[in-house]
Each structure stands twice: as C-alpha cells, then as structure tokens.
Amino acid sequence: MLLRNTIQFFRLKPVVAVGFLFATSSLLVAVWASALPFIKLRLGLNDSQLGLLLLFAPLGSIVGVLTSTTVFSKIKIGNWLGMGNLAQCTLFCLEVYSPNVIWFSGALFLRGYFGFLNGVANNMVASRLENEYNRKFLSTCHAMYSIGGAIGAAYTAILFGFEIKSLYQILGMYVLVTITVFSLRPFYLKHDYFIHSKSGFKLPNKSILGLSFICMVIFMTEGSIVDWSSIYMKRELLAPLFYISLGYGGFSVAMTLGRLNGDIIIPKLGDKKIIIYGSLIAAFGILMVAINSIIPLVIFGFILTGIGCCCIVPVLFATASKIPNVPAVQGYGMITTGGLVGFLAGPSIIGFISEQYTLSLGFIFTFIMLLFAAFAGYRNRYLG
Length: 384
What we know:
Oligomer: single chain
Main location: membrane
Protein name: MFS transporter
Pfam family, one: MFS_1
Keywords: Membrane, Transmembrane, Transmembrane helix
Structural class: mainly alpha
Organism: Lacihabitans lacunae
CATH superfamily: MFS general substrate transporter like domains
C-alpha cells in the first residue's frame, strides 16, 4: 500500500513540483547543520553566544507570522513559489560564509522570515491540490522535507569523506536546488491566485493550548537536533567527520519513513496514542543520545527520536482543524505559533545549559519536555 501511494504521488508532476519545495530547505539545513561547528569556531562563539544568535531565525519567523496576510494579499502565490524558497536557500549560504556576527545574525533573521512564509505557501497550495485531485498527499509532501534532510546528510557525509569543506558543499547543493526550482517553475506559475492565510501571531486559546504546547515541544526537539547534533557528535563524542552529520541524517530518515507510513499508522493507532507513544519513544531516544558515548548508539538514539516525532505534527494540524468554532486556518496559525515558540526557546536554552554545564544535560532537558508532551497528549480531550 505504501509503495502504491508513493508511486501515485510521483506520477502527479504538479504535486511533485510542490513537494520538492518542502525539500529545498531541508537539503540546505543538512549541510548547514554540519557546518555549524566550523561557523562557531570561525566567529569565535561559545555555546551560549551561539544559542543566543540562533534566536534570530525564529524571531524572523514571528515577523513572518505578523506579515503573512499582507504579503500574500499582494503577491500571487505562483510568483512566490520557488522564488521564496531560493531566497531562503541563499540565506543559508550567507550564514555559512558570514564574515562576522552581524552578517550571521541578519541572515538567520531573514532566513526565519522567508522560512515561515514558504511554509504557509507550500501548505496552502498542497491543500488546494488535495482538493483538486481528491486525494490525500500532504503527509507525503512533509515526507519530502525529511527526504531532503536525509539526502543532504548523506551528501555531506560523502563529501566530508573526500575532505571537501562545508564552504564548497553548501554551494554545490545551492546550485542543484536552483537548477531544479527553475526547471519546475512552469508548474508554480500555474497557481495564478492570491491566498489570504489570516495567520496572525496570537496566544492559543484554551481549547488548543495543550495541542500548541505539544507542537512547541516537538518543534523544540527537532530544532535542537538540527542545531546541536553535529556539535555534540564532533565536540562531545570526538566523532570523525564522516559521522558528524549522521545524527541529523538518521533522525531525518526515521522521520521520512514514518511520514510515508503515516496514513496507515495514524488510523490504526488513533491520534491520542500517536501523541503519547510517539512522545515517549522520542524521549527514550533523546535520553540515549544524552547518556551514551558510543557513537552507533547515539545515532540510534537520534533515529528513535525521529520515529517518535514523525507523525505527531500531522496529527496536531489535523486535530486543530476539527476544534469547534475555530477555523482551520486559524487553528493552523495558533499551532504554528506554538511551534515557533519551541524553535525560539529550545536550541537557545540548550546552548545556555551547555555553556553552564554540558550539552548532554541540554538533551536531558529535551527528554523531560517530551515526557510533559506525552502527559499533555494523555490529558487532551480533543485527541480521539
């Protein structure tokens, strides 16, 4: 069933074109994450300073929340698709090449801004295509993001094996993404309409506060792995260059396989069990990362974390759209706000904990938050 669904997805070229946009950022994220230890060294940053600077990306995303309605009421979505993604990819390159902290901070902020707007655009168009083709493939589109992360991590590991530096790796990936986006641009331009997301920044109301908290924890977990896994592998475990991207890569592969199977797994287990069991599995995985010094076991811990997290966000978005008296788009916006808080707080808190204590203790903080997420899922009455 999985293979048949995947084949059908890739037969729909307009859908695949949009699905690729989900992968553009993750292809660059994998290279960027592996470059972080070297960026940190070049700019002379300690863990707490890096954690503080990483706040600029989610701050940019929050500005995106505030301005998304205005942007998409003036720019047709077909003109944005692809071009917005390439802008984000360009900013990844600027971060890797940043000569000083000011350039690095500015690129982070703008990348967060474009990243949020791209997320709104991609999800809105994918939802429209679902209605057009009368079938579900949004989960597969999100799997494309995970596939991009896995491909990017493998690409990075192979090039490190040939002693090719991150400065050149990021350029090579940028060229490949740019060529692909322009080749698919005719499919994007067919979306000749405006969207009005109405996703303003607001605190979640009581009916979805628990869901927003769970989303915050899951996004915090993913953001922490993206930002700190390579540094942890390199500095704490003294892993060879070939291995430092495999923590994030293993996490991404697990997320990919889980999301590709999500349409089968979620109906069988139910929303509540997905949240509870998924959070507990992710907690166990991140605990393995924190307490182990054996590299294969640490990588396995990252994989378990991906297995646990993979289906939680799709369940949260689907549940938010069913909350009584809460429009689906508004629910999506409030859930995203919770996720942004996670991206805002998680990596930076881990950076501060790492500076004062150890990076392992930072991951234990994530472990504790995942336990709270499991409890919140158990208590939430909107999860069937």
